[in-house]
Amino acid sequence: MGIEGPFWRAIAVFRIASLVYAGVLLVQHDGYARPVMGWFVLSLMALWTAASIFAYSVEALRGWPLLVIDMLVTLACLLASPYVEGPYQYAEGVMPLPATWIAGPVLAWAVYGGRRLGALGAAIVAAADVWLRVRTPEAPVLINGAVLLFLSGVVVGHVARLAKQAEERMQRAAEMEAAQRERDRLSRGIHDSVLQVLALVQRRGQELGGEAAELGRLAGEQEAALRDLISLRPAPSGDLRSLLTRYGSATVTVSTPATPIVLPPAIAAEVAAAVGAALDNVRTHVGPDARAWIFAEQEEDCVIVSVRDEGDGIPPGRLEQAERDGRMGVAQSIKGRIADAGGTVTIITAPGDGTEIEIRIPVRP
């Protein structure tokens, strides 16, 4: 039943106490003109109290059908009260038979849907009570009950919603903790087996040379990627740093701050995709073994990410010629993505000095 369980049990206690109070009113008070009708209404209230307590205790039954039926039964008992009281209706000291019992569905609506639904339920019940008073000219029009119903619905609904949110946060924290424990367990096993084997292959491949050196290099890349993967901890949504570290390998060095670089998730994903496109260009135009460096930093008003390589640079006019030829890698995959995210791209290149692509994304409150 979760965090809602205590709320539903409290409502059940309230319904029973209100029912007992209605029975005391009927037994001790002589202001009811039709006591037989009163006992009939009280019996209906008792039956619905038992049925509602059982129904709300079953999570599968909690929903709009039950809430609507609960409200209709309560309104029926409230609208029947003038026939029980007869000419004594609203006389001094005479209370309607379901005086406090009518708050049951208001509290149920509040726990189920929060303060807004609680306020709606209070408005429905209060409207029925005010209508009964208005249609009786000699009855005083009092709003005390309506105000109490409204306050009860709003306060209980607000507290119930806060409790649900707290439970959800605790659940997410427990899941993250369990996932991290499982990650740590797997990390220990991988470190003791797979990583050691990859490190051995890399070392022996470099010693043997030739084709074995290439196998050693590939093993080193996989070791670095796997080590980064098992060392990652759950990152905040939109953390650009965690997205960039995935590009780290034996040929790609990633330098980021120690703290997360948090951007809107969609923008962080676009920046990471643009960095991936820049690395693809390095592998295509410089070579699969070319070294590349990713630097990321966060200033007060913007996030800066740069991708540098060790190539020969971009000859003058090549990017413009590529766009005219329909090759839109840099224009769309990098510049287009960053422009859509509200940022800018600067390409710094010179013959023999490699290329640096600098991405700037403004940080908005």
UniProtKB/TrEMBL annotation:
Transmembrane segment boundaries: 6-27, 39-58, 64-81, 93-112, 141-163
Record's keyword annotation contains Transmembrane helix: yes
Keywords for this protein: Kinase, Membrane, Transferase, Transmembrane, Transmembrane helix, Two-component regulatory system
InterPro entries: DUF5931, HATPase_C_sf, HATPase_dom, Sensor_HK_TwoCompSys
Domain DUF5931: 1-168
Transmembrane found in the keyword field: yes
GO MF terms, alphabetically ordered: kinase activity
GO BP terms, alphabetized: phosphorelay signal transduction system
Histidine kinase/HSP90-like ATPase domain sequence ranges: 273-364
Name listed for the protein in its UniProt record: Signal transduction histidine kinase
